[in-house]
Hints:
The chain contains 17 helices and 6 strands. It has a 6-stranded mixed β-sheet, with helices on both faces. The longest helix has 21 residues, at about 310-330. With about 375 residues, it is α/β, with parallel strands linked by helices. The model has no long low-confidence stretch (mean pLDDT about 95). It has helices at about 10-30, 75-85, 95-105, 115-120, 130-140, 160-170, 170-185, 190-200, 225-240, 245-250, 250-260, 265-270, 275-295, 310-330, 335, 340-350, 365-380; strands at about 5-10, 35-45, 55-60, 65-70, 90, 115. Helix 5 (about 130-140) packs across helix 7 (about 170-185), helix 9 (about 225-240) runs antiparallel to helix 11 (about 250-260) and helix 14 (about 310-330) packs antiparallel against helix 17 (about 365-380).
Amino acid sequence: MISRRISFADSNAALELALGRLTEDARNTCSETGMATVALDTEFIRTRTFYPIAALYQLASANEVVIIDPLPIDDWRPFTDLLESNEILKLMHSCSEDLEVFARHLDTRPGPLFDTQVAAAFLGSNFSPGYAELVRACTGVELGKHHTRSDWLARPLADEQIEYAIEDVTYLAEIHAKQRRDLERLGRIDWFQSELDERLVINGATDDTYYLGVRSAWRCEGKQINRLKALCAWREQRAKQRDLPRGHVISDEELVDLAVLRDVAPAKVRECVAPAAARRYTDDLLSIMADADELEEVATAPPRPLSRAQTKVVKRLKTVGANKASELDLAPELLSRRRDLEGCVRSFQETGDLSPAFLGWRYPLVGEEFASILAESMQTDPDAGA
């Protein structure tokens, strides 16, 4: 393991001191780009809660590692200042869930960022390699067994947990340096940055739009859509209020079953949900469904499954995208992920143009061929646009 000084920050004073040293070291040991870099990771628990619970923060510069215990700290200004500094590049691996932790616990969003998992997709065929896999590929180091299932809120932490936490930020700088050199050599740094920027845009569902992403929402028709929308919004609010996972309140599938009920009676409602939910929520559910049925305007319909003709078009697009990815040695999902292709077919049907995902850096690679296939399919098979 790379030798660095390790500091444990478990008080406000210790946090300020440790981050001061780390920031100074980062600025004195800039990367090849001339920019200071800090490796960053979190450990959190989210097994029985709606929101992630921050359990540990880890940072590393060239000569310093800081392990932050968030439980006894209440002055986070030194940390948020670092996270928000435009002069320091934060190196992370698969950062989406970590960003939720920062948003919930510290009401902040780190930036600028470099995500090594996203970068890896532009440098080989693996779309989402694990951290240990990247460490092995970029440094030749074999990490020990990881402790992802540990109780990170338990104190004191075991030596193995601390070692794991340190490992998670130890090699990010070395991985970043190699990936950046390779991206620049291949002329893909702009592709990577565009893709990362797109993924970092917060487009999460609101309480009122969650229903649109429910897997079987297409089963609902007419005013049943109003029911599902209202039921999902209620469940979102209740899950947040009680800080419970959605499924611990009522599952998506149970909400769809409720929305399509023909006979909205207490006994029928209770049959649709788990016994505990029936005991707790039957009256609420009946009231929500009754109010939704009174609405005159029907909510936006969720997307229906693609037709057989549309599915054939998706397969043609997938072949084009996969072949181009193979030619360039990119992860195929970058150009041919099914949900992106389905979105492209729907977009072309509705607007006559490709979806936004294929109008950016992907367009020079597959955009013209995608547009040609979609236009041809609309002309030769009307069902492809249905």
